[in-house]
Write a structure and sequence with these properties.
alpha+beta, 6-stranded mixed beta barrel, 48% helix, 3 domains, 14 helices
Length: 453
């Protein structure tokens, strides 16, 4: 039988059972729409991750106190790495140079019988964890002893009650204390005004730079913020700048929703002396970031033998967030695959019924000379037509549903690849689940088929 004749028979059967085709393809329609939306959500998640960390340099390293999550036991052990300058010498300014490790040998920490360094505060092999409060002196030591650091700053944040502008009641928001280096470390752009200087930090000036969303909340018009006065915890501050809108999070701080003040002013007037500052640094050579982190850990372990701290780099933070987004996408695709299986089972059941109903027709076709291949191809093409029809309708439904998904607050990004994947899923499903009924029809004996009641 010619292919054109087979296609004509397929079309006649499809056309004569429109409602059956529509109902059979519902599972495929739902599956295809799900695939399109799932891939769009996955791409939206990746875009969100990129947006969240777009202000974070690839070589950013964040050092934070970790005593709150420690449960005692052994603290962070030093692991010495090559490429470090000798700390045996002294430098002007004193500081903690007497407590610095000599990376070239000589002043390595002593090791006991258990193989661990004998630090002060070790009792019975158990280290007493203490809060690690970083200072400007620590920043100086890191700058001096770690060769791969390009820029470094102290960072502190807390909550502050803000009054001013059009606010009718106090606004509670994040107040960040930073130095002038922070604007370069976080790639901050200013919509209006300037960031505060090191002189303003040293003089404890009460000046503030507002995140975009905070400026809108306080003044409605961001350009009205510049030069205005606001109160933070009942202390008057002059707004000297407003950041451009970023949508980013840096060091667990949502930039658009924060207020930035000089570090020393934040310590004195906002967060107090008991807060836990972070150290944020940018390395010169990103390829050496692991070695730099190891050296930072070694140095800080010598300086704070009873302390607990974490050192994280931007790459690992982005990778962790990206991995979470990818995992969610895989789970959603797995769910969509289940929907396709259900749709495929529907196609299989309908074809089984169709074979049963059309047994005499199959016998006539075979009696007229149709081969097994012709019968197999006819039923497979019917299954594929149903699945392709469902796939096309499902893709269209997926795109129509995207605005609804956006209303729920989720980010979705439409892509051509999602449509291709959905259609491929539909075709494969139709072929796999349609093959056995088609094969069963092809294997019918003409005499048995013609005698079927």
């Amino acid at each position: 039988m010619a292919l054109q004749e087979i296609l004509n028979l397929v079309w006649i059967n499809i056309k004569g059972n429109k409602s059956k085709v529509l109902l059979t393809s519902l599972g495929i329609i739902v599956g295809a729409a799900t695939i399109v939306i799932v891939i769009a959500i996955g791409l939206g998640g990746q875009k969100d991750v990129q947006e969240q960390f777009k202000n974070l340099n690839a070589g950013t390293v964040t050092i934070a106190d970790n005593s709150g999550s420690s449960s005692g036991g052994m603290g962070r052990m030093p692991s010495f790495s090559g490429g470090m300058p000798s700390g045996g010498g002294s430098r002007s300014g004193g500081g903690r140079s007497s407590g610095m490790p000599s990376f070239s040998g000589g002043s390595m920490p002593s090791f006991g019988s258990g193989g661990f360094p004998a630090f002060p505060g070790m009792m019975g092999g158990v280290q007493q964890i203490k809060k690690t409060t970083f200072t400007e002196e620590d920043v100086e030591e890191l700058t001096w002893f770690i060769p791969n650091i390009e820029t470094i700053t102290l960072l502190i944040n807390g909550s502050g009650d803000v009054e001013g502008g059009i606010l009718e009641e106090e606004l509670s928001t994040t107040v960040v204390g930073a130095t002038s280096e922070y604007v370069d470390i976080s790639n901050l752009g200013l919509l209006t005004g300037d960031f505060f200087t090191e002189a303003e930090n040293e003089d404890l000036e009460r000046v503030a730079v507002l995140g975009y969303d905070t400026a809108v909340s306080i003044f409605e018009n961001v350009y009205d913020a510049y030069g205005s006065q606001i109160n933070i915890n009942s202390k008057k501050y002059t707004v000297i700048g407003v950041l451009t809108e970023t949508g980013s999070t840096v060091s667990d701080i949502t930039l658009d929703s924060a207020i930035f003040v000089p570090y020393n002013s934040a310590v004195k007037y906002v967060v107090g002396q008991n807060a836990s500052p972070k150290i944020v640094a940018v390395v010169e050579d990103v390829n050496e970031i692991e070695t730099t982190i190891l050296n930072i850990e070694t140095l800080l372990t010598e300086m704070y033998p009873n302390g607990s701290f974490s050192v994280a780099n931007a790459g690992s933070q982005v990778a962790a967030s990206q991995k979470s987004a990818d995992t969610m996408s895989i789970l959603l695709i797995a769910v969509a695959s289940v929907v396709f299986v259900v749709g495929g089972i529907g196609i299989m059941n309908v074809l089984f019924v169709s074979v049963k109903e059309r047994t005499r027709e199959i016998g006539i076709l075979k009696a007229l000379g149709s081969s097994r291949k012709d019968i197999l191809l006819q039923f497979l093409l019917e299954a594929n037509f149903i699945s392709i029809f469902g796939g096309i309708v499902g893709v269209m439904a997926g795109y129509l549903l995207m605005p609804v998904v956006r209303l729920s607050g989720m980010s979705v990004v439409a892509s051509t690849s999602a449509s291709v994947v959905a259609l491929l899923f539909a075709i494969v499903t139709g072929t796999l689940f349609g093959f056995y009924p088609a094969w069963q029809a092809a294997c019918l004996k003409p005499i048995d088929a013609l005698n079927h009641e």
